[in-house]
Every structure is written in C-alpha cells, then in structure tokens.
Amino acid sequence: KVVSVTGASGYIASWLVKLLLERGYTVKASVRDPHDKKKTEHLLELDGAKERLQLFKADLLEEGSFDSLVEGSEGVFHTASPFYHNVSDPQAELIDPALKGTLNVLRSCAKVPSIKRVVITSSMAAVAFNGKPLAPDVVVDESWFSDVVVCEKSKLWYMISKTLAEEAAWKFAKENGIDIVTINPGLVIGPLLQPTLNTSVEPVLKLVNGAERFPNTTYRWVDVRDVATAHILAFENASASGRYCLVGRVIHCSDTVNILRDLFPALKLPEECADDKPFTPTYQVSKERAQSLGVKFTPLEVTLKDTVESLKEKNFF
Ligand code: NDP
C-alpha cells in the first residue's frame, strides 16, 4: 500500500515514517529540501527506507506543490506545519503555512480518487483555548474548539494557526467530499529520531540541563510513539472519524520534576518554582475516543525516561 506523509523530516513525522515502513507501507515523503542531510539522513537510514521510501520536495506555500506527492496514494498524513515560539511575523511564519498549507495539501488530495482518507495532525492547541476555565474536575474533549478571538487577546499565534487550519480543513473536506480525520495531540515528547531539537521536547531539556527554577505551568504530555501509532490507526480503522484528542497525562511542572528526580537521582534538577503564585491547575483530557481507536498510552515515567536518555545520547546536555 502506498501512503504519503507531508513534513516527513519533523519530530512526529519521522516516527510516523518509521512505523509506516515497519508495517510494510511504501511511503512517499515530502521535505522542503531533499538535499539537506540534517533533515533527511535519519529517514534514509530507517529499516525499509532503501526499498520503500521516496522523498519529494514540497512547500506548504507553493500552490500545487503536493500534487506529485499524493498521486497514487491510498492515505495521506498531513503533518507539516511550523511549530516554534519566537516569531516576529505570526501571519507569515505560522498562520499562512498552517492554514494555506492545509488547504493546498487538501486541494492536491481532491484530485486523486485513490485517496481513501487524509489524516491531519491538528493539536490540542485547536481544542483547549476557548476561555473556559480549566480546573481538576474539568474534562476537555473533542467537542471543544479553541476560539481565535480568545487566543488573539493573549497572542497565542501557534494556537490560532492550528485552529484556523483545522476549521478550514473540516469545511473543505465537507464541501469536497474528502474523508478526513484529525489527531489532536498535547505536548509531544519521547525519543528523537532527527538530529535537531524540536519545540515540544525543549521543556524537558531545559529541566535537566541545569535550570534553577521550573515554570509554573501544566503540561499535556503525550508520547511521540503513541501519536505516530494513532495516525496509522486512524487511517487503517475504516470506522475512525472526526477528531481524536491525544493526551497521556496533564501534570504540573513540579510533578514532572519529581518524576525526573526519581528516575535520575544523579541529575541536578530545579528545586523552586519560577514564581510564587498558586500552581496553575491541572485538568483532564478525555481518553475515550483515542482508546476506542486502539491507542494504548505509554506511562509518563517511561516517556520521560526515554526522552532524557535520547537527549543524552544525542549530546544535547
Ligand atoms: P517539527 O518542527 O519537528 O516539524 C514540523 C514540520 O513542518 C517540519 O518537517 C517542517 O519542515 C514542516 N514545515 C514547516 N513549514 C513548512 C513549509 N512552509 N513547507 C513545508 N513544510 C514545512 O514539529 P512536530 O513534529 O512537533 O510537529 C508536526 C506536526 O504536529 C505539526 O503540524 C504540529 O503543529 C503538530 N503538533 C505538534 C505537537 C508537539 O508537541 N510536537 C503537538 C500537537 C501538534 P522542515 O523540516 O523543512 O522545516
């Protein structure tokens, strides 16, 4: 079976390509620059890559860029979207590639009758930011949608980019009769396949790399291997539909530090919170739909251990 993956060099997509190859798929994978070794070498070294991985050049902002990628595929996994914090022009750097890029990919898919389903990597960023207060008894689920107006007030540009992209995807899919499913992960951590540090693993590196204080924040952690598997299950399971929130555990940073201390007693970890305000509350994220898809969440302790060991092995600290 032939499938396509956009943004294949990314953190999540690299795991997705690895697992797809392991399951015997032929994978057509897009990157922005196929000659950039840092972005492609780890993919070309995967088991099965020689026989069944083909790289394509494509950019989210170039009309028709994904036509040859998706041609002849049964499934398309659209993961490409910029994810970083220090932006100077949010519209050009985050919102346009996310929104226009998603429509660009879907327009290419609409021309290919062999495509049975498009699985889109959305985010909890498109779910949880709607101004409703979060508290330990609140259960966030797939019926929630982030509110762009609320996000604008707090300059949550990445959240806006993912919300607009997902909303546009559902509208386009409905109007053009395309079967889409979205995967909405929380903050993704776990071992890195690519040689560079990505945005969501950075908070873990900061904690283990000599930070004096930990931020007063809660994290919605989920394991990268669970996220990649969920994408595949969402394609393979014909009855999958709609959105799937993927969060293993919502936990305050102080408790994350406690787990890390138990796992790595020799590491110097931050002892104090960065401010003296009350701790940001936790909340729950429904696992029901993800579990109905067959996702088994990796315990956070295992994910954190594997993340830190991977960071160490790759000499990040
Ligand atoms: P990475 O930064 O590792 O990967 C992002 C990918 O998007 C890269 O492959 C990058 O390509 C590609 N990309 C960015 N801009 C463009 C563009 N203009 N044209 C083509 N490709 C582009 O991030 P993640 O793996 O973390 O994220 C992958 C997806 O998962 C994104 O959609 C993100 O929003 C979503 N997500 C991530 C979460 C996380 O915690 N990591 C949580 C929830 C959702 P290049 O290599 O060329 O730069």
What would your notes on this structure say?
Strand 1 (2-6), helix 1 and strand 2 form a beta-alpha-beta unit. Helix 5 (90-110) runs parallel beside helix 7 (157-176). 40% of the residues lie in helices and 18% in strands. It has a seven-stranded parallel sheet with strand order 3-2-1-4-5-7-11, with helices on both faces. Strands 8-10-12 form a three-stranded mixed sheet. A two-stranded parallel sheet has the order 6-14. It has helices at 11-22, 37-44, 49-52, 67-70, 90-110, 148-153, 157-176, 202-208, 224-236, 253-263, 288-293, 300-313, and strands at 2-6, 26-31, 53-57, 75-78, 117-121, 139-140, 180-185, 187-189, 213-214, 218-223, 242-246, 249-252, 272-273, 284-285. With 317 residues, it is an alpha/beta fold. The chain is globular, with a radius of gyration of 19 Å. The protein has twelve helices and 14 strands. The N and C termini lie far apart (40 Å). The structure holds NADPH dihydro-nicotinamide-adenine-dinucleotide phosphate (NDP). NADPH dihydro-nicotinamide-adenine-dinucleotide phosphate (NDP) binds at residues 7, 9-13, 31-32, 39, 59-61, 79-83, 97, 121, 123, 162, 185, 187-188, 198, 200. NADPH dihydro-nicotinamide-adenine-dinucleotide phosphate binds at residues 7, 9-13, 31-32, 39, 59-61, 79-83, 97, 121, 123, 162, 185, 187-188, 198, 200.
